[in-house]
Design goal:
Length: 259
């Protein structure tokens, strides 16, 4: 899929690794000048290196001063913004019931996955509203549509991202700014790639269990998610707003078992 994003500027959060990096790379490969931002400044710099017209900067979506400085930098460096991808997100490694869930983990995840999306959009969208044009693409999760057990903060934050996206579509639509979400299923970031290729019996059991829910029989590559973002960023997607594109190999299409 080729799209003409020539002359457009995109800002991607969490662009140093994984899905965010694949999104930033694909937008750049289709002509956009991309601001690679990440809490990990070195990772953002590595990802942007050698990409003409692109630049990198530390931007931790939980730090308001970083967001303000990032918005100022964006204007100085690029002079405009057309596409905002709120991708930065984390989950917990503690898998426990809600009554055992650590409050600081709850706060950390909600602050990053949901409040971060709100705060970055709040800082950037005035630039779009002023020009009466722009695309906001929020990276949610299938767990924001159908929750998984033992991840209460993540599933709540991602469900919040889905409805926040719809609220953005309602509020910004009259100003020509479109807002949509992409909900990935199991996607091979660095950590998951290790687990999927591990020979450890506990990992094998987890992989087998996960794959049994995925009709396409494999996890997503980061690029599979990035293509959905590219589609939503494309000039041709000008009548799509307030929707969620699910990229999960069929995981949430129904129950992958016989009744
Ligand atoms: N990988 C999956 O299976 C999967 C599935 C569904 C949804 N997602 C979502 O996709 C998005 C990207 O996930 P990923 O799998 O690529 O993760 P990843 O861990 O590979 O990359 C996340 C990136 O975000 C950065 N980051 C973390 N906290 C940040 C913060 N506070 N501010 C700015 N940057 C920060 C990290 O430094 C890292 O570079 C997340 O929103 C995640 O919830 C991932």
């Amino acid at each position: 899929m080729k799209v003409d994003l020539g002359g457009q500027v995109a800002l991607v959060t969490g662009a140093g690794n994984g899905i965010g990096r694949a999104i930033a790379d694909l937008l750049a490969a289709n002509g956009a000048r991309v601001a690679y931002t990440d809490a990990d400044e070195a990772a953002a710099g590595r990802a942007a290196a050698g990409k003409p017209g692109c630049a990198a900067r530390r931007l931790d979506v939980t730090v308001p001063a970083d967001i303000e400085a990032g918005a100022r930098w964006l204007l100085e460096e690029f002079g405009r913004i057309d596409i905002l991808v709120n991708n930065a997100g984390i989950n917990t490694r503690f898998r426990v019931n809600l009554d055992q869930f650590h409050d600081d983990e709850w706060d950390r995840i909600v602050a990053t996955d949901l409040t971060g999306c709100y705060r970055v959009t709040k800082a950037i969208v005035p630039l779009m509203l002023k020009r009466k044009s722009g695309r906001i693409i929020n990276i949610a999760s299938v767990f924001g549509l159908v929750p998984a057990r033992l991840q209460c903060a993540y599933v709540a934050a991602k469900a919040g991202v889905v409805n926040l996206t719809r609220a953005m579509a309602l509020e910004f639509g009259p100003y020509g700014v479109l807002a949509n979400a992409v909900a990935p299923g199991s996607t091979l970031n660095e950590g998951l790639r290790k687990i999927y290729s591990s020979q450890d019996p506990a990992d094998r059991k987890w992989v087998e269990g996960t794959l049994s829910h995925i009709p396409l029989g494999r996890p997503a590559e980061c690029e599979d998610v990035a293509y959905a973002v590219l589609f939503l960023a494309a000039p041709e997607s000008r009548y799509i707003t307030g929707t969620v594109i699910v990229v999960d190999g069929g995981w949430t299409a129904g129950f992958s078992r016989d009744f």
